[in-house]
Structure formats: structure tokens, C-alpha cells
# Entry
Amino acid sequence: MIWKIIIIISAAIASYFIPTPKELQKAFTAGQNFYASSNFPKAIEQYDVIINTQSDFLNEDSVKVDLLSGEYIVSVVAAAYYQKANALKSLGKRDEAISIFRLVEERKDEQKLAALAQFQIYDLYYRSNDYIQAIREARKLSDKYAWSPKAEIALYDIGWAYRELNDIEKSNQAFIELIQKYPQTDYLASSIYQLGQNNFDQGNFDKSISFWVELQDKFKPESFKQQEWEKVQLKAVKERQIFEATAGRETNESILELVAKSQVKIGDAYREKGDYINAMQSYQKAVTQYTLLPSLIEVSYIKMADYTLHEKGIDSARYVYQKAIDENFNKKDLQAKMQYKIAETYQNEKMYLKAADEFEFYADGYAEVADAINFSVESAYYTRIVNLYNGEAFSKVVAEVDSFIIKYPSSEYKYDLIYLSGSSSFTLKNFEKARQNFQVIAQDKPGSSQAVSSRIFLGRILYEEKKYSEAKTELLAVLNEENNPAYNDEANYYLLQVY
# Structure
């Protein structure tokens, strides 16, 4: 009778200290809640409650919980280990996290979760820029868990890791292996595109063209739905360099973006080969096929004009931009950008007076969209005046600076233009006008480089007026009062002329 009482008491005590399946699940839920609120230390405490539970009365592995919104239904212990590793990762404890992920990967009962843990291991090395170890771990995943979707990602990341190591040939091999093993992979378009880019970077332009043409053939523009076009168009407006940027491991580009970019890249490859005709046809094809992607059209026209400038000269390049303007009469912002490029091209070619006229045309013709394309009318008029100055149209500079300041009295360009007006007036020997401008700068911007230069000009004006003593006093004051050694040589040069 006594032994029965002992057994009953022992069982009661055991049931009191041994967690039930529901309690383990409750501990896991608590850990997940702490994890979701970024309280990772508290989350780890809850996961450890599960991990440290050992009892002959309870098979912990029979208790199941879900991970990743139900995608994985796994034993509570495996889930606790996995989430503890994630919490350690979030705390920046890479090596500790990896050691726990390895425990999950070594389990025989949760193969899907094991593959995911192996992914986490190589991803941690990748994000730490330890590309060699990342490649080893990713290769283990692709070989051991070839059935897992994570194996596809592993091969893709191996390709990128080798690229980070500047081993382009092995990068190519990884992308090709991915395509051959998993012809229906979600990374097909990205891999083909990157094979084109890799070969382009290696100088294998014919190969790069063949890969990008293959991408065009597999994913024809007409196969994409209207919603996909609209999504890319919206993204392109926000990220205007999208069609110029190099793809990356995590750029998250859609297939449509890659296909569109590849058409432009084909033109780039032909340009590198010195094949002007095919390059221009490729760029023109991008313009024709991707009418719903204005940023791509913009990039294509600019590339066409730039190559034409290099091969045919500025008049032919201008024609490309003018053709873009004429063919897009209902796209005012694109027209404005092309007009800006015309003006900028003349400026870069040091044809300053033509540039000045084109900037004026921009300001007068595209005022309603100027701010939207980040080149305001105010900036256009300022740039026009700078080009007039560089083109030595000094009388126009003086007149237009006065008009500009009346129109934009608080402009950020105000003192730059007053200085140009002063310099122009000095060249025109209108010394009184020059003096007024330089005195404004010296008074309003004391200590600035413009003020120092203006004071030197004031000394030079006195010299030109044959007021040598006053000129000497002014130039000596510059040397004594202004703490700007960059202008000492200039001040001394003119001081010597006074003597």
C-alpha cells in the first residue's frame, strides 16, 4: 500500500515539473512574440526553456509548431533551435548563430528546415563578406539538398560570390550550372542577364550579345502583362538610373526590367565592338519596343546621341536629340530632358554661345516641367549666363545678371553672378559698375574666397584708374587682413605691378 502511495506522489510531482505539449507550444509562442517585438534576449530565454526540456515522460519532437506563416510544420525543439539562431543573428552574434544553425542542419528528422538552416549559414558568411566560406557552405547546400528551392538560390549566390572575388569565369560556371540543373528556376532571367554582363566585363562582347539576345527571345516584351509594365514604369520614375545601374545580388529587379535593360546593353556591346550601325539599331529597338518605359527611352536616346557625337560630330548628335523631341510631342518631361542634353552637349564641347542659346530655349519652352526633372528655370538662366561669360559675351552677362537678380533676389546663385558681372564689367573697362559689384561681395561675404578675389579686383580697378597709392593700400590690406593663402600669389603679382 505504501509503495502505491509513493508512485502516486511521484507521478504527481513529475506531472507538476514536466511541461505538457501545450506548455511547450506556449513557450514557443512567447518566444515568437518577443522575437517579433525585437526583444531577442527574452526570446532566447523562451527558446531555451524548450531546448533544455528533457523528460522520459514527454517526446518533445512529437510536439509540432509552425514557422514562416505555416510554411514549415516542425518539432518544437527544432523550431526553438532555429529561432534561437535567428535571434542571435539579429543580435549580431554571427558565430554563435552559425553554431546553432549547424545543430538544426545536422538533424535527420527535419530536412526542409535543415536546408533552410544551411542557407542561413552561408548567407551569414556572405553578408560578412567572407565569400570563400560562403561558397563552401552554399555548395554544401546545393549538393546535399538539391531538391530544395534553396539549392537554386545557393548556386545563384555562388555566382555572385565569385564575382565579388573577381573570379568572373567561375561566376559564369555557377550561373550556367544553375540554368542547366534548374531550367525553370525563378533566377533564369537574372542568371542569363548576368552571364551577359560578366562576358561584357571580360571583353567577350559577342558572347555578351548572345546571352542578352537569348534573354530577349525567352522573355519577349509582348508577353508581359499591363500591370508589370505599370509597376516598372512607376519604379523607373522613382529610380531614374534604373536602366543604367549594374544588376546585383539583391537588386530585386523584375524580369521585365532585365529584359528591357538587356536590349540597351546589346547596343553597348556593339559600341564596344565599334559597330555603329548595329549599336544604333539596338538602341532604336529599345525606344520602339519599350514605349511605356520613359526612363529607358531617355537612356537609349542619350546613348545614341553620345555615340553619334563620338562618331559623327556634334551636328549629328544634336539631330538625335531633336528627333527624340519631335517624336515625343506628348511627353513634355522627356522633351525637356532632351533639350537639356542639347544644351549640355554644346557646353561640354566648349561651344558656349550655342549652349547659352539652348539653355535659354529650355527655360522658355519647358518651364512647366523644369522642376519635375530637377533642373529649374532659375538654374537654366544661371547656366546660360555662365556660358555667356565663358563665351566672352560680357555685355550680355552684365545685362542678364541685372535682370536675373531682379527676378530671383534670393537666389543661391546671386553672388556667383554678381562676381561674373563684376569681372565682365572690368573687362569692358566699366570700372564703376565693376567696383559696385565687387564691393557688394566684399561687404556681404567677408572672408569668403569670392570676397578675397573681389578685393584684389578692387585693387586692380584702382590701378587701372592710375590711383596707384590707393591700389597699393588695397592689395596690401588683402595680404594682411585676409587669411587665404591661395590668393597671396595673385595679390603679390598685382602689387608688383603697382610698384
